[in-house]
Amino acid sequence: MKKMDPAKAEAYFKYRTTMILIYLTIGFLASYVIVFFARDLSSITVMGIPFHYYMGSQGAVLTFIILLFLNAVMSDKIDKKFGFDPEFVDTNNRTEDH
C-alpha cells in the first residue's frame, strides 16, 4: 500500500469527520428533537398524520436509510477525490495467508 502525504491524509480525515458529524446531527434531530417538540409540532401534518407521530413511526427510519445511502455516495466521491481507488492498493505487496 502506498504511503499517503500527511497533509492529504489530514485533509481526508477532517473531511470524513465533518461528514460524520453532519450525519449524526441530522440523525439526532430526526430522532430526539422531534420528540422534545412533539406538542409544538402536532399542528403540522404529513399525509394526514401529525408530524411528530409520523417521525416516530416512519420518518426517523426513512431519514436513517436516506443518510446511509447519502453516506455511501459521498464516501465514494471523497475517496475518489483523495485518490482512494482500488488501484491505490499495491497488488505487488500482498501478504499471503499460511
From TrEMBL:
Domain of life: Bacteria
Keyword Iron-sulfur: no
Annotated keywords: Membrane, Transmembrane, Transmembrane helix
Coiled coil: none
Ranges that cross the membrane: 20-39, 51-73
Sodium symporter small subunit domain residues: 10-84
Keyword Transmembrane tagged: yes
Descriptive protein name: DUF4212 domain-containing protein
Organism expressing this protein natively: Halobacillus naozhouensis
